[in-house]
Design brief:
Layout (H helix, E strand, L loop, with lengths): L14 H9 L4 E5 L2 E6 L1 E4 L3 E4 L2 E4 L4 E4 L2
Antiparallel strand pairs: 1-2, 1-6, 3-4, 4-5
Amino acid sequence: MMKQSSRFMRSLTSDVHFYTAQMGRVPIVVFIAGELIGSGKIMEITKDSIKVGNDRYFRSACTFKYAI
């Protein structure tokens, strides 16, 4: 049985989480109100939004979690 990462489905809540996931090319998932709306690797980080793949998500409206 494969061991699950200790960060699996943990929320990315600070800039250091986002930049670490981006640098490590770690896949993440994006939720709004508990509904999965996107997934992929972080391409760009701004003060207000996170670009995952080709889509941009507002930080204030979404929850971001590690996919692995």
